[in-house]
Amino acid sequence: MRQLYGELDVVIEIKKGKLRWLVHVERMSEERVVKRLYQNTPEGSRSVGRPRLRWRDDVREDLRRMGVTNWRIRAHRRDDWKWS
User: Fold this and answer.
1) pTM for the full predicted model
2) What HEC string does 25-75 produce?
């Protein structure tokens, strides 16, 4: 998508929001329900066919494409993790 007349690029803003939420969840204490759900791996079998992507997989792919490494360590250091 292109910027048109100074409007924000929607795709970039959505990805920034996902990364902000990821860092927020990473900084949460282990007892928080959201953190436990994020870290949880469901048991059981999936239906036949291509597996659906999880939110976590999508965000990790964004990080990989951006070349972000050691994101968990950097997330806990607020000065290292700045998104404009």
Assistant:
1) 0.68
2) HHHCCCCCHHHHHHHCCCCCCCCCCCCCCCHHHHHHHHHHHHCCCCHHHHH
What residue has token string 């994020």? 38
Structure tokens at 19: 């990364």
Where are the chain's structural domains? 8-33+54-84
Q: Which residue has the tokens 């990790």?
A: 60
Structure tokens at 39: 């870290």
Q: By C-alpha distance, which of 27, 31, 56, 26 is closest to 41? A: 56
pLDDT for 47 = 80
pLDDT of 3 > 60? The answer is no
